[in-house]
């Protein structure tokens, strides 16, 4: 896919209209699931296109065909091996025992050096697409920084990122920033429906209005309301031991359920203030019931605990222990305040 997403076309035209005095490095960033990587790729295609239409890639010329086929000589994609495997561009079979790298390694940056000295096709741009920029390890980031300090001619670096604050500040300072907004809900809904996503409105809300995330979750067959959230809302405020919830959590990936509970926690905080849920509008009544009975301090403590788990979620030491502990922590924090319920305004 080398076209801009529908909501990206207007900002893309504005951006590409300045291509004559283009910065040599751009940091394209936005919330996860809003299409910054797609924007960068479509941007590369538009810069390389031989007969752009209204600034955007025509999709038909030789350059556009090369980009689509993934073999344009003036386009390089620098991403972790794990990402290349997901794209089907790299075989895992080589050494099945070894996990593909989640990092962008220095060799990948170094391998660009000879490329900078080759002539470009018809004297056009050379585009290095690097995503996600957070995957650059420190050594690779420094190597890239060195290149950007004396940028090669006719070369544009497009870095895509979700969290620029996690990048090397000196690297960020070498890039022009191009922030992408969360697309308007109506446009995202139209796009999701065109993509055949069922229950698009609930999906989009559950994904925090990030349309690509909503589509990904639909394609993975994830329920809009994950089973653990459903169980949790059923058991909240009751005297159970949380065993069923612990089982459900253990059957899933910590990275998934921590994320889901963080979203539900925001909905509960909103509910405690009498506001409608942001992520699960269809569950407004259940969320409000739980939210009205709970202790805000306990809710805040568990929010902190969830944030800590977020960092550890990829490497749980003992999944069963974590699931048991999580179920207890989550349910305890929504036990109604019994004696002397504090009057909350
Ligand atoms: Zn073209």
From TrEMBL:
UniProt xrefs under InterPro entries: DNA_pol_HolB, DNA_Rep/Repair_Clamp_Loader, P-loop_NTPase
Coiled-coil intervals, chain numbering: none
SUPFAM superfamilies noted in UniProt: P-loop containing nucleoside triphosphate hydrolases
Alphabetical UniProt keywords: Nucleotidyltransferase, Transferase
One Gene Ontology term of the molecular function aspect: DNA-directed DNA polymerase activity
EC number of the protein: 2.7.7.7
Signal sequence range: none
NCBIfam families in UniProt: holB
Protein name: DNA polymerase III subunit delta
Organism encoding this protein: Castellaniella hirudinis
Taxonomic lineage of the native organism: Bacteria, Pseudomonadati, Pseudomonadota, Betaproteobacteria, Burkholderiales
Gene name per UniProt: holB
């Amino acid at each position: 896919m080398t076209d801009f997403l529908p909501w990206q076309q207007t900002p893309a035209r504005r951006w590409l209209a300045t291509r004559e005095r283009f910065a040599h490095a751009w940091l394209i960033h936005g919330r996860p699931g809003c299409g910054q990587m797609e924007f960068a790729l479509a941007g590369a295609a538009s810069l390389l296109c031989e007969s752009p239409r209204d600034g955007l890639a025509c999709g038909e010329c030789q350059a556009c065909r090369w980009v689509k086929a993934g073999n344009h000589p003036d386009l390089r994609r620098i991403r972790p091996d794990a990402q290349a495997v997901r794209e089907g561009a790299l075989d895992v079979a080589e050494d099945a025992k070894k996990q593909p790298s989640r990092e962008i390694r220095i060799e990948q940056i170094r391998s660009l050096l000879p490329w900078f000295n080759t002539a470009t096709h018809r004297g056009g741009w050379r585009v290095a697409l690097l995503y996600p920029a957070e995957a650059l390890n420190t050594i690779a980031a420094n190597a890239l920084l060195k290149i950007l300090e004396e940028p090669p001619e006719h070369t544009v670096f497009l870095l895509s990122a979700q969290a620029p604050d996690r990048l090397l500040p000196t690297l960020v300072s070498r890039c022009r920033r191009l922030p992408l907004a969360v697309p308007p809900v109506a446009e995202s809904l139209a796009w999701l429906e065109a993509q055949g996503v069922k229950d698009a409105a609930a999906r989009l809300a559950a994904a925090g209005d990030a349309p690509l995330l909503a589509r990904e979750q639909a394609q993975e067959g994830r329920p809009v309301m994950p089973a653990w959230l459903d169980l949790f809302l059923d058991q909240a405020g009751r005297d159970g031991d949380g065993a069923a919830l612990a089982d459900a959590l253990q059957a899933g990936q910590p990275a998934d359920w921590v994320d889901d509970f963080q979203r539900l926690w925001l909905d509960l905080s909103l509910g405690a203030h009498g506001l409608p849920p942001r992520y699960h509008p269809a569950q407004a009544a259940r969320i409000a019931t739980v939210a009205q009975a709970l202790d805000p301090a306990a809710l805040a403590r568990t929010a902190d605990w969830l944030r800590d788990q977020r960092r550890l979620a990829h490497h749980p030491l003992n999944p069963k222990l974590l699931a048991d502990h999580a179920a207890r922590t989550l349910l305890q924090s929504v036990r109604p305040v019994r004696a002397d319920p504090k009057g909350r305004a």
